[in-house]
Amino acid sequence: MHYHRIIPILLYDDGATFRSQQFARHYKMGDPLQQLDRYKAWDVDEIVYLDMQRTAGGRRLLDFLPAISRNCFAPLAVGGGIRTLDDIHHHLDAGADRIVINTAALDDPSFISSAARRFGEQAIIVSIDAKQQAGGHYEVIAASGQRPTGKSVSAWAVEAAARGAGEIMINSIDRDGMGVGYDIVLIQEITTRVSIPVIACGGVGAFEHLAAGIRDGGASSVAAANIFCFKEHSYFIAKDVVSAAGLPVRTSATREKVRRKLLNGVPHEREMRWP
Fold it and tell me: For the CA atoms of 16, 270, 222, 176, what is the dihedral angle to 10 degrees?
C-alpha cells in the first residue's frame, strides 16, 4: 500500500528557525534542534530543513547538519544554497538523506541530470516556487522568491522530471504562511503532467488542507511549516484528519499511544499563540 507522507518543514537562517509569510522571515521560533526534538517524539514521516540564507555572512545550515542528523531518526531532506555537486556531497556526507535544489537547477538545468546520475534520482528533490500572475498563469520565481524567470510552472516541472528529478516540491509564494489552504489549481498544474511524486507546500492553516492537497490536488505527499509549531499534538491530529478522509498514512506506536490518551479524555492539544 502507498502511504501519503506528511512532512514538517523547518525554515532556517543564521542559527535559528523561523516562521515565514510570503517568503519573508517573520518570527523566530528557536534553535535548529529545538523543534527537531518535538518532531522526533512524534515519529514524523520525514523532515525538511531549508536554509533561507537571509543573513549576509550568517551561519549556514551545513554547520549544524551533523548535530541535526545525529538527533534525527526520520528521513532528512535539506536545501537552500546548494549550487554544485560538491555542495550536495557535503550535505549528504554531513547526514542528509535527500537534497532539495531550486535556483541552481533553474540557472543550469543540466545540474539536475548531473546530480541524479551521481547521487541517484531518489536523492534529488527539485523545489519550485511559484507565483500567480495577471491572467491566472503561474510563473517560476528563483532566488527565494526574488527573481522572476518567465518560466511556466508546468513546463519547468515536466523538464525537471525528464532530467532526473526524483520528486518535485511545489510551493505557492502567494499562500506561504497565510493559512488559507493549498493552491489546488497550482498543484494540479504539476500532478497532471508528471509521473514522479509531488510534494505540496504553502498555505496550510487547518489540518483539512493537508487532505485536500492529496485528494483534490493529486499530491503524493503534503508539507507544512507553521501549523506544526503551535499545537502540542498537531502531527497526530494531522494524520488522523488525513486518514479520516480515506487517505492511507503510516501509523506508529507513538501515534497509537497518543490516540489512547485522547480516547481516555486527556486533553489532546495545547493551543499556543500564533504571532
Answer: -60
Q: Taking the CB of residue 134, how many other CB atoms lie within 10 A of it?
A: 5
User: First vs last Cα of the chain: how many Å apart?
Assistant: 39
Question: Using CA atoms, how far apart are residues 158 and 10, in angstroms rounded to an integer?
Answer: 27
Q: Dihedral sign, CA of 101, 213, 243, 262?
A: positive
Question: Quick one: average pLDDT of 110-123?
Answer: 98
Q: How far apart are CA 214 and CA 74, in angstroms?
A: 21
Residues in the chain: 275
For the segment 67-82, what is each residue's pLDDT rounded down to a tens digit? 999 999 999 999 999 9
CA–CA gap between residue 222 and residue 6 (Å, rounded): 5
Does the reported pTM lie above 0.70?
yes
